[in-house]
Amino acid sequence: MPKLLHMICSPREQSESSAAGRMFVDQFRQAHPDWDIEEFDLWREPLPEFTGPILDAKYARIDGRGFSHEERDAFAVAERLAMRLALAERVVISTPMWNFSIPYKLKQWIDVISQPGLTFRFDPATGYLPLLSDRPTLVIIASGSDFITGMNRGRIDMATPYLREALRFIGIRSVQFVPVGPTTGPADPIRDARDNAHRRLAELASRF
Ligand SMILES: Cc1cc2nc3c(=O)[nH]c(=O)nc-3n(C[C@H](O)[C@H](O)[C@H](O)COP(=O)(O)O)c2cc1C
After folding, report:
1. Residue 194, SS3 per DSSP
2. pTM for the whole thing?
3. From the CB of 144, is ligand 1 less than 6 Å away?
């Protein structure tokens, strides 16, 4: 059964990004009733701290040496997390913008799965090679301010270019971004932004 993986990256009950993501996934499910939908809440499921044996395992790979028992066990956690992504034919990442970028849980997940020999490899002759196959991926980013143009009052959206590059690095190039914002401030612009984003997502869901 093909799988869609929905990564929830906001810890909030009233999350705009989670609501938009779930709305999209519901529409997708209606159009694709035979698909398996897996929700991965980064705030509810454990992620390893990137220190100790999992960190040493990364350097073991970089230095081309074998793993200790501890490093192998720690690396297996990264393998399982990367496998959840690798086995998904479609990916939805719904995330807040936090301090112009992404929440630390999403960054932590990226740090854990971005491992040599797992999601990318380095060849001195040819450089970095991604190891995951490309797949349609949707990133929904909710922000308090309106970052639809990539800027707001001189502040730059660094979440979008960062995620585009981090996903491209491991092989996922077919990424569409849908911003939801402003989500704070006066009620009318919030409602308009939400309606516009949801309309766009509903259109995307049938051909994702
Ligand atoms: C720690 C933190 C940092 C934030 N930083 C920004 C920011 O840099 N730019 C912005 O427009 N909004 C920022 N916000 C507001 C959130 O982006 C906004 O509330 C958004 O709706 C959060 O997504 P969610 O509704 O899915 O939780 C921040 C909120 C928090 C809690």
Report:
1. helix
2. 0.97
3. yes
